[in-house]
Amino acid sequence: MNKNISSVIALITPGVLRLLMDNRKLSLEDAAEVLYNSRLYSLLEDEETKVWRFSYPLLYDLLEEELTTGKITFPDEQI
Prior knowledge:
single chain
């Protein structure tokens, strides 16, 4: 993975974790387990998907969609 992409992921991950903790009343450990084991996070790490360009609120919404429906619906310009 590109170092710049890794840096971006490191910057947006805390925001997604915070939203998971606040909205789902999870501990940091539980929120991290949910995020890091999600399909969304796998796509986030895949440089070619360009999911890393999304804001952390949008990433959180996509994660919620994945958790509730099992699907991820990306914005039109994506994937």
